[in-house]
Amino acid sequence: MTQPHLTVATYNIQKGIGSDFRRRPTRAAAVLEDLGADIVAVQEGDRRFGERAGVFDLGELRDRTGLQPVPVPTRLGLRAHGWHGNLLLMRHAELREVQGLHLPGAEPRGALVVDLEHETFGPLRVIAVHLALMAQARREQARLLARLVAEAAQPVIVMGDMNEWRRWPSATLTVLDEQLGPPGMAASFPAPFPRLALDRIYAGGGLQMVSAHAHDTPAARRASDHLPVVARITAAIRSEAAPQGAAASG
Questions:
Q1: Which residue of 22, 90, 146, 233 sits 20 to 30 Å from the alpha carbon of 119, by its own alpha carbon?
Q2: Domain total of the chain
Q3: Tens digits of per-residue pLDDT, 42-51?
Q4: Which pLDDT tens digit goes with each residue over 75-128?
């Protein structure tokens, strides 16, 4: 009998601006449709200034992809889709709780912590993040994320643009690497000539990372400066001896 799997993805859409420096978020929406993922963490889903308005037409995005945006807490007067630009999209799941956290550091960064009930996998905690450019801030942010993982009473997925240039073991994400094992990752930046594995997916609490790859297509190379990273996850107990990172790093 085939074991059920969950397809998840992380995608920095660069506020809808493509490699041609034009803001056309419909191109990123088309890439999201191609992914066929069950849960997607989007980074830079909102404009940076003013009302921080979201770049997608969320109704059109739902119709096109079948993915439901998770509503997030926001400040009065802002028209953001996400939390510090982090947007979580899901299907076949029921939202239980969502929390937006400010991450430590000089840059305005945040984490979106979502507890949901998936129709096949049951309770899950998904943490969508976009970590800092500065190394010391990333270390502090990784420690906070590790606490959120440790507190969870259910399996956990942590994914987003980690801004870590080293592959594995990481220079600044050590606490997450030790807690969850090697992440699923692949060269995803810059999209036209991907060399760096900045975008990563961790799975823990009984989840097993089966594979991970960059969604590298001509459309994805045009839609943003990052390629999406897609991972296949099962609800099996993680093997302590299995070198997941080597198998999943693409």
A1: 146
A2: 1
A3: 999 987 666 6
A4: 545 677 888 899 999 999 999 999 999 999 888 899 999 999 999 999 999 999
d(CA 40, CA 160): 9
Domain that holds residue 112: 5-248
Determine how many CB atoms are found less than 10 A away from the CB of residue 57: 13
Residue whose entry in the numeric block shows the structure tokens 């994914």: 159
* Predicted local distance difference test score (pLDDT) of residue 202: 97
Query: Torsions phi, psi of 219, nearest 5?
Result: -65, -40
45 and 56 Cβ atoms separated by less than 8 Å: yes
Range 96-123 burial, b when 16+ CB lie within 10 A, else e:
eebebbebbbeeebbbbbbbbebeebee
pTM higher than 0.85: yes
String of DSSP letters for 78-136: ---SSBTTBEEEESSEEEEEEEEEEPSSSS--EEEEEEEEETTTEEEEEEEEE--SSHH
21 vs 64: CA distance, rounded Å? 24
Interatomic CA distance for residues 242 and 235, integer angstroms: 15
In what helix (H) or strand (E) does residue 165 lie, and over which residues does it extend? none
* Nearest-angstrom CA–CA distance, 96 and 51: 28
Domain harbouring 163, CATH code: 3.60.10.10
